[in-house]
Automatic annotation (TrEMBL):
It comes from Cyclobacterium amurskyense. Belongs to the ParB family. NCBIfam families: parB_part (TIGR00180). One of its GO terms (molecular function) is DNA binding. The keyword Transcription does not apply. This is Chromosome (Plasmid) partitioning protein ParB.
Length: 307
C-alpha cells in the first residue's frame, strides 16, 4: 500500500467504517487545538512508531503472545495490510484509537514507521471508538465484551437500545452480557480464563444464592460438565426449592441433594438393585439395599465380599 509521509498532501479518506459510525465532534480538546493547519485531520500517512502512545481506553486486557508473534511474522513478510487509527495530540505525537495488535506486532517485527489514519477525536469518542472497534473486530472473551458494554453505557452515556444499534446486537443479547457482571468474582475469573463458557455462565446467573452458584461453578470445572448438564442441574436446584421438604431432607442444600442423588444412582448401578440413600442437614442418614430372595441377598453379599 502506497502511503504519504506526514508532510505530504492528504490522501482520500478510508471510506466507510468507524467514521460512518462516529462523526468527528466540533468540540476542541488537546488533539484539535494543536496546530491543526500543520497536519491534515483525515487521511493515511506514514508515522513513526516511537511517536505513538498506546490507547488508555483499550478494552482488551490480554494479548496472546503466540498470536502476536504470528502477526509480527506476517507483517515482516506482507507489511501492514490495514493502517492503524490515531488521533494527533501535537507535532510528532499521536495516540492510538484502534489497532493496538497491529501496533504491538509492528514493533515486534522491527518496523520504525507504520501507516496510520489520522483523525480528530475527544476523549469520549476515543473510548467509544476503541470499544466498538474491539467488540466488532477482536476476539474478546465474554467478560471483556460485558465490561466494554458497561463502559459504553456508563461513560459514553448510551442507552441499551443505542448500544445495540452501535454494536449490531439486539437488546436481549446486550443484556445477557451485562448480567455476567453480577456474577461473583471467582466465576467472572472463570469466564475470563475460559474455564467456563458464556453458556455455562448464563445458566449460573439464574441461581440467586451465591454459595450455590460457586458450588455448581466448581462442580462444572471439576467434572467438565456440558452447558446442558449445568442447565439441568440449575433447573433441578431451582425447581426443588419450593417443594415441601421431608424430615430427612429438611433444609438440605440443593447442591448436596444433587450429590446424594448421584451417589444413590451409582450405588444402584453397582448393586444391580434400587438403593435408598438418605441424609439430613447434620450429615446423618442411612443406606438401604433391598433384596428379593436368599439368592439375591447372597449376590449382594458377594459384591460386598462378605461371603
Amino acid at each position: 500500500m502506497a502511503v504519504n509521509k506526514t508532510n505530504s498532501k492528504k490522501r482520500g479518506a478510508l471510506g466507510k467504517g468507524l467514521g460512518a459510525l462516529l462523526k468527528d465532534s466540533p468540540q476542541k480538546d488537546k488533539s484539535t487545538e494543536a496546530e491543526e493547519d500543520k497536519m491534515p485531520v483525515a487521511g493515511i500517512f506514514e508515522i513513526s512508531l516511537s511517536d505513538v502512545q498506546v490507547n488508555p481506553y483499550q478494552p482488551r486486557t490480554h494479548f496472546d503472545k503466540t498470536a502476536l508473534e504470528e502477526l509480527a511474522e506476517s507483517i515482516r513478510v506482507q507489511g501492514i495490510i490495514q493502517p492503524i487509527t490515531v488521533r494527533r495530540l501535537a507535532d510528532n505525537e499521536y495516540q492510538l484509537i484502534s489497532g493496538e495488535r497491529r501496533f504491538q506486532a509492528s514493533k515486534l517485527a522491527g518496523l520504525e514507521m507504520i501507516p496510520a489514519y489520522i483523525r480528530t477525536a475527544n476523549d469520549q469518542q476515543m473510548l467509544e471508538m476503541a470499544l466498538i472497534e474491539n467488540i466488532q473486530r477482536e476476539n474478546l472473551n465474554a467478560l471483556e465484551i460485558a465490561h466494554s458494554y458497561q463502559r459504553l453505557l456508563a461513560e459514553c452515556d448510551l442507552k441499551q437500545e443505542q448500544l445495540g444499534d452501535r454494536v449490531g446486537k439486539n437488546r436481549t443479547t446486550v443484556n445477557n452480557y451485562l448480567r455476567l457482571l453480577k456474577l461473583p468474582p471467582d466465576i467472572q475469573a472463570g469466564i475470563r480464563d475460559q474455564k467456563i463458557s458464556m453458556g455455562h455462565a448464563r445458566a449460573l446467573i439464574n441461581i440467586e444464592d451465591v454459595d450455590k452458584q460457586l458450588a455448581i461453578f466448581k462442580k462444572t470445572i471439576e467434572e467438565e460438565l456440558s452447558v446442558r448438564k449445568v442447565e439441568a442441574l440449575v433447573k433441578e436446584l431451582n425447581d426443588g426449592a419450593p417443594q415441601k421438604p421431608t424430615k430427612e431432607s429438611e433444609s438440605l442444600d440443593p447442591v448436596k441433594k444433587y450429590e446424594i442423588n448421584k451417589l444413590q444412582q451409582k450405588l444402584a448401578s453397582h448393586f444391580g438393585t434400587k438403593v435408598s440413600l438418605k441424609s439430613d442437614k447434620k450429615d446423618k442418614g442411612e443406606i438401604k439395599i433391598p433384596f428379593h430372595s436368599t439368592s439375591d441377598l447372597n449376590r449382594i453379599l458377594e459384591i460386598l465380599e462378605l461371603i
